[in-house]
Design a protein that fits this description.
- The structure holds two protein chains of two kinds.
- Chain A is an alpha+beta fold.
- Chain A has eight helices and four strands.
- In chain A, helix 3 crosses helix 4.
- In chain B, the strands form four sheets. Chain B has a five-stranded mixed sheet, with helices on one face. In chain B, strands 13-12-16-14-15 form a five-stranded mixed sheet. A four-stranded parallel sheet of chain B has the order 8-7-6-9, with helices on both faces.
- In chain B, helix 9 crosses helix 10 and helix 19 runs antiparallel to helix 21.
- Classes of the chains: A alpha+beta, B alpha/beta.
């Protein structure tokens, strides 16, 4: 079951099709001696936007680890994605300081506005169908300027529903322009 | 040529400082006015961001909350000469919020260009390191103990004792690890140091290396802080080029290298042993102690692991002496703490003051009350694992021991204000939910207890306010406090129980329930 989004950018392609990526050269490029597994996973995600699951086996071979160890690290940390992020990805802080300034009401507004649900991508293996990805995060370090969120990695503070709508429109427009 | 300062720290950027800087440069060029634009750090007066400062003969004149759309009117008002304008806030150094602080660790933030080595040296930088290079290592450890500096990450363990342990250990490799995994909601002091004065942290880590005999340092920064990571990496490169790092620190026989390591969004990695596991490239699972990391730390080697603020405070202690630093504070809490006013507060920002200030002073004399204008009701001190303090406790001096006496923690100095629309039962349930999300899973009380906690609180909130249910929650909290391996499970009950004790009405309870027998 996939969440339907009101906003549809006409089938904007996701950043990468995981089937098209050859895992071996990717791993060879990043699994350099002296680098920790965490650093290698960061390097892969920095390049692709996510860590394809089929890199687990070659990573394990290259780093002399078991596949279980690599899979364990990859799935332990919230930061790593095993699938591409949605073209517009919103990360909203849901922690205490932002709660005291109405982040829960803002979250409701964002869900209503986009027709998407927060953290639904975590429940479904595949976020590729959703044009807008909504993710809860816990603290962006802007606790004196709550609520805070990022849209496609860019940080915004003191976000109101009106400000969110403008930011979303701008992000949507940028995605459409690059499509 | 007029010098104009526009902050480059992420708080200012999150409010459009880059677009603002572009607009000011563009407008100045249009009008043929020569300006020098400097991207400084934040002053920590975050409610004023973006805070533009213009250098005038009277001092640095500030214009607060400036938007790119205000730029034309600023030029029209003659802001280049410090002219009157609705956003004009006068000489920034004379703003009472700033003037009344005791900025020791944060002496330079916002004043300097964070990446300028010349600025750093012109404002007292490297004085501490030079003294450390000239000092005997044993004496340096004793001086640090004498200063009374305790770990600022929250555990408040004396830094000098940790250093002495590592210095006394013999091993082929020792490490200095900086814990910059600042995941507590309501805290941003580590971020401010890293983005606004990275060299003070670098200097503190080099001193730690020289004193303890460690030659390699890592700064473990959470991935949610990309601006901090970028600033640190640029600063480390410049420090290396300037000869502070490498085989010969400032031309001495000491070697020290420094690297940034990036976290990956696991809150529990702020716990020191989980952080070490993560730094080794593994899942961030808590280790049992002993052995302590000072003896068996990173890759099994003796390791100093200190918080950003602890390490960033070391240079001024070495530069000014232990007695100078010790003079601030009260009781066994010596020196200053950078308090972070956050959440529903009108004037949020960084307030560095000696220990002993009260919450009420911070909330009203500095914070100016709530942002919503409604009465403040509950204040959480010390991050998500800290207690909620009701108004009756706002006059307790902020001191490690005084707070511990009422079951509260000072922690990393984060202060989150909630107004009278808050629901403490909901916040208690959230605390358990957060623990369930972030538990590393190694110990049962934390891994399972947090989920059971969410369920029990949900039942109470749904109307089952029987004594049995409340006692179940208290018993569960008791198990978590006594049986968890680290503070994640061991302190999640703090916000929960303080909410239950002080705000029972939010749980649908009429009176304070009898407390469980003390463990």
């Amino acid at each position: 079951m996939k969440d339907k989004c009101i906003l549809d950018f006409g089938g904007v392609p996701t950043l990468h099709d995981s089937n098209a990526i050859a895992p071996e050269p990717l791993v060879q490029r990043h699994a350099q001696p002296g680098r920790s597994l965490l650093a290698v996973l960061h390097a892969i995600q920095d390049e692709l936007g996510f860590v394809p699951p089929d890199t687990v086996a070659p990573l394990a071979r290259a780093m002399n680890l078991s596949r279980a160890e690599v899979h364990g690290v990859l799935t332990y940390y919230h930061h790593f994605r095993t699938h591409p992020a949605a073209p517009v990805t919103v990360q909203l802080c849901r922690a205490e300081a932002c709660r005291s300034m109405g982040t829960e009401a803002l979250a409701q507004h964002i869900e209503t506005r986009t027709g998407c649900r927060f953290d639904s991508a975590h429940q479904h293996q595949d976020a590729e169908g959703a044009a807008v990805g909504l993710e809860s995060v816990y603290c962006l370090g802007q606790c004196a300027l709550s609520p805070a969120l990022t849209i496609n990695g860019t940080l915004h503070a003191k976000v109101t529903p009106q400000k969110f709508d403008a930011l979303l429109a701008a992000a949507t427009k940028r995605v459409e322009e690059t499509a | 040529m007029t010098r104009i300062y526009i902050p480059r720290d992420s708080a200012a950027l999150a409010l459009g400082a880059d677009a603002l800087a572009d607009a000011i440069a563009h407008e100045a060029a249009q009008r043929g006015i020569a300006i020098e634009l400097i991207r400084n750090g934040s002053r920590g007066l975050l409610w004023l961001e973006p805070l533009v400062e213009v250098v005038t003969p009277r001092g640095r004149i500030g214009y607060a909350n400036v938007d790119a759309a205000d730029v034309v009117s600023l030029f029209d008002a003659g802001f280049i000469e410090g002219g009157a304008h609705p956003n004009h806030v006068g000489v920034v150094d004379e703003i009472p919020y700033l003037q009344r602080q005791q900025r020791l660790t944060f002496a330079r933030i916002g004043i300097t260009d964070p990446l300028s080595i010349d600025d750093y040296l012109a404002h007292g930088g490297l004085e501490g390191l030079k003294r450390a290079l000239a000092a005997d290592g044993d004496a340096a450890c004793e001086a640090l103990i004498e200063s009374g500096l305790r770990g600022r990450g929250g555990a408040a363990f004396p830094a000098g004792i940790k250093w002495r342990t590592v210095r006394g250990a013999s091993a082929p490799q020792k490490y200095i690890v900086c814990n910059a995994d600042e995941g507590d909601s309501g805290t941003f002091s580590d971020r401010l140091i890293m983005e606004s004065d990275p060299y003070v942290l670098i200097e503190g880590m080099i001193i730690a290396g020289i004193v303890t005999g460690a030659t390699l340092g890592y700064i473990y920064v959470r991935s949610e802080y990309p601006h901090s990571i970028a600033t640190l990496e640029a600063a480390i490169q410049r420090a290396r080029d300037a000869g502070w790092l490498g085989d010969s620190v400032l031309g001495s026989a000491h070697r020290f290298e420094l690297e940034v390591a990036k976290g990956a969004g696991a809150y529990v990695c702020g716990e020191e042993t989980a952080l070490l596991e993560s730094l080794e490239g593994k899942r961030g699972i808590v280790r049992a102690k002993p052995p302590v990391p000072a003896l068996v730390g990173l890759f099994g080697q003796p390791t100093v692991i200190n918080n950003v603020i602890t390490l960033a405070t070391v240079p001024i202690i070495f530069a000014r002496g232990a007695a100078f630093y010790k003079n601030f504070g009260m009781g066994r809490s010596r020196g200053t703490l950078p308090f972070q006013l956050a959440g529903n507060v009108k004037q949020g920002g960084l307030v560095e003051l000696a220990f002993g200030v009260t919450l009420r002073e911070l909330l009203y004399d500095y914070g100016g009350g709530t942002a919503s204008g409604r009465p403040a009701r509950a204040v959480q001190v010390g991050g998500p694992l800290g207690t909620y303090l009701p108004e009756s406790q706002w006059d307790i001096p902020l001191d490690y021991e005084a707070y511990a006496a009422v079951g509260a923690v000072v922690g990393h100095g984060g202060i989150v204000v909630h107004d009278d629309t808050s629901n403490l039962a909901e916040l208690a349930q959230y605390a358990m939910h957060f623990c369930a999300l972030e538990s590393c899973g190694k110990c049962t009380p934390c891994r399972i207890g947090s989920t059971r906690g969410v369920e029990v609180i949900a039942r109470i909130r749904n109307g089952d306010t029987s004594t049995r249910q409340v006692q179940l929650l208290r018993d569960l909290c008791d198990t978590m406090v006594s049986g968890s391996l680290c503070a994640m499970g061991g302190m999640t009950p703090y916000p929960v129980l303080s909410a239950l004790d002080h705000f029972p009405e939010d749980f649908g309870l009429d009176t304070v329930q009898p407390k469980a027998a003390a463990a």
